[in-house]
Amino acid sequence: MSKPALPNKPTAKKSYRTLSGLPLENVYGPEQTDPNRYVGMPGEFPYTRGIHDTMYRGKLWTMRQFSGFATPEETNARYHYLLKNGQAGLSVAFDLPTLMGFDSDHPASEGEVGKCGVAISSLEDMETLFRGIPLGEVTVSMTINSPAPMIWAMYLAVAEQQGVPWSKVNGTLQNDILKEYIAQKEYIYPPRPSMRLVTDTIEFGAKHTPKFNPISISGYHIREAGSTAVQELAFTLRDGMEYVDWAIERGLPVDDFAPRLSFFFNAHSDFFEEIAKYRAARRIWAFAMRDRYGAKEERSMKLRFHAQTAGCSLTWQQPINNVVRTAIQGLAAVLGGTQSLHTNSLDEAYALPSEQAVTIALRTQQIIAHETGVPSVADPFGGSYFIEQLTAQVEEAANVYIRRIDEMGGMIPAIERNYPQSEIANASFEYQQTVETGEQIIVGVNQFIAAKEEQIDLLQIDETASEKQAAKLKSLRARRDNAKVEKTLDALKRAAEGTENTMPYLMDCVKAYATLGEMCDALKGVFGTYTETSVI
Amino acid sequence: MDNRIRVLVAKPGLDGHDRGAKIIARALRDAGMEVIYTGLRQTPDMIVSAALQEDVQVIGLSILSGAHNAIVPRVMNLLKEKQMTDVIVIVGGIVPDEDAARLKQLGVAAVYQPGASLDAIVEFIRSTVKQPA
């Protein structure tokens, strides 16, 4: 008798499910696993168990803390601090005006300059941001979406100034506009012209920057907006397929650009479900690239990803507990085979992290890497009855969504009919109901509440960042060759009206010190802007 | 006659994180209130105009970007200018305690920080809005 018996004694809950609602058995055995399902080895198609055979023995994941605040001067100092403390790569957080394509001195920027990240309005700001940081050695990830082509042009210009050839520039641009319409809502232009800009960067990257990832297809924000793990996985991978479709449509052979597509997932609190999610992600992507797109190169089929622990799981109450949440989530990402990791700081439910909090977060990764022994063995959960079955469940559930979006004609029609947005809003509301009723316990929030909350020291953002940035912009506009700026912006507009790749024109604008707002406005004139119809 | 409480849920500033605003809007609607959700990136002018036009008794502002100190005073001033001080303003989001105290001095009725319960917000609105006799 091998059928796992249900316990005879009463259980604590009526039903046991993952955070995403997938049903769970009491125990798993060979009965629940499909003997015909090929699990394989790490480094072998479909890479369920990891993209490298030696995994972290070959190369540890990159510890990459997302950071940026106030002015480029202050953020540059934080970068030097992080690199000195053993961080391997940088990850730039931009402020909201920059993310929305507004200069720091635009009226819409009031009250927002330097608050959620660093303010970057021109090449001059970018030069300051990377002062003393060798872009030929440090890899930089930039979380920027709608204005990604402009910010990338600035970055490539700084690399040039440092004497680093584009062929050696290594790093990542987030540049995932689809998840903006779906979840984070930082879009400027309508979906189709935005997709054209993304395709421009993918094409430009395939030709000029062989080591740079022009896009990081992101589930992180989808999850933070309240989706389930399955929705995060499905919408992200379907977004990825949409970018592949557009690049192929542009005439690029799939193996020329697919190896540079990268992904970004959330690391949430349901430990096993998260591990299963990363394993299922690699599997679905490998099959899609091989069978749906006819990729021949293994590198095209290997899903590489960055993970960040779940900001939305952090609590305002008893914030020190967030260190524990983050450690467990980070461990799940490592057990799931991530290529790089950001661990959140304990104070991030309040503000951007203080230097002390960000150090603890970095140390958390270092403890996982060097004290636990976890990185010594590739995919240690491989073959576990439970993990293999959960991986299959997550994969099947995600494929149902992917097929549904295919039937709608792809991700853009799906977005236009609010499909992913509604699915996420429903999941988010249902989850909140379980928190309200206490069915989902959140330690320190709806149970185990402290009589008195401890106070923590928070990072204070320099309130003068806005004035400093405005003064620099004023001086730049007076010093630069304004006729040249006009000329490059006009050329950009003409390119945008046609079908040429806009990247070379953006490089010219940036080098003439056109501001971010000027470049984004020039394209607004051609593409128009986007407003969503909100669903509640 | 419909005497449901009318609430405008608004997302001012550049921030697009609308998870909280949407959950609140739905919870208030489920509690029997008439909810108007403005959508994203509303200026204080747009919010106050919408409040006037929709004849709401409550404005709920959701701000997670740290821009509350710039945005909320604007809204409060505009309400004063338009003699709409009977409209109850509630703020939800990442608002530190000191800022919350300052916003309340400006006339904000309540500030809800992360972890606040939906029931508490519903109850507060019900008990604060003056029902027509």
Q: Beta-sheet strand percentage of chain A?
A: 5-15%
Distance between the termini of chain B: 13 Å
Mean pLDDT rating of chain B: 94
Enumerate how many helices of chain B there are, as a single number.
5
Question: How many β-strand runs of chain A?
Answer: 10
Which residues of chain A form runs of ≥5 with pLDDT under 50? 1-5
Radius of gyration of chain B: 13 Å
Order of helices and strands of chain A: EEHEHHEHEHHEEHHHEHHEHEHHHHHHHH
Helix content range of chain A: 40-55%
Number of strands of chain B: 5
How does the helix and strand content of chain A classify structurally? alpha/beta
Q: Biggest interface, which chains?
A: A-B, 41 and 32 residues
Report the β-strand fraction of chain B as a percent range. 15-25%
Structural commentary:
- The complex is a heterodimer of chains A (536) and B (133).
- Chain A has 536 residues and is α/β, with parallel strands linked by helices.
- Helices cover 47% and strands 7% of the residues of chain A.
- Chain A is built from 20 helices and 10 strands.
- Chain A has helices spanning 72-84, 96-99, 123-129, 148-161, 178-184, 191-208, 220-224, 229-249, 254-257, 271-292, 298-301, 321-335, 355-370, 385-407, 411-416, 419-437, 465-479, 482-497, 503-511, 516-527, and strands at residues 62-63, 66-67, 89-93, 139-143, 171-173, 212-213, 215-218, 261-267, 305-309, 340-342.
- Chain A has a 5-stranded parallel β-sheet. In chain A, strands 2-3-4-5-6 form a 5-stranded parallel β-sheet, covered by helices on one side.
- In chain A, helix 4 (148-161) links the parallel strand 4 (139-143) and strand 5 (171-173).
- In chain A, helix 8 (229-249) runs parallel beside helix 10 (271-292) and helix 10 crosses helix 14.
- The N and C termini of chain A lie far apart (51 Å).
- The model of chain A is unreliable at 1-5 (pLDDT under 50).
- Chain B is α/β, with parallel strands linked by helices and 133 residues long.
- Chain B has helices spanning 19-30, 44-54, 68-81, 97-105, 118-128; strands at 6-10, 34-37, 58-63, 88-93, 110-112.
- In chain B, strands 2-1-3-4-5 form a 5-stranded parallel β-sheet, sandwiched between helices.
- In chain B, helix 3 (68-81) links the parallel strand 3 and strand 4 (88-93).
- In chain B, helix 2 packs across helix 3.
- Chain B is globular, with a radius of gyration of 13 Å.
- Chain A binds chain B through residues 96-97, 99-100, 102, 108-112, 115-116, 180, 184-186, 224-226, 312, 315-317, 349-351, 425, 428-429, 432, 436, 442, 445-446, 458, 461, 531-534, 536, and chain B through 13-19, 22-23, 25-27, 29, 35, 37-40, 65-67, 69-71, 94, 96, 113-115, 117-119.
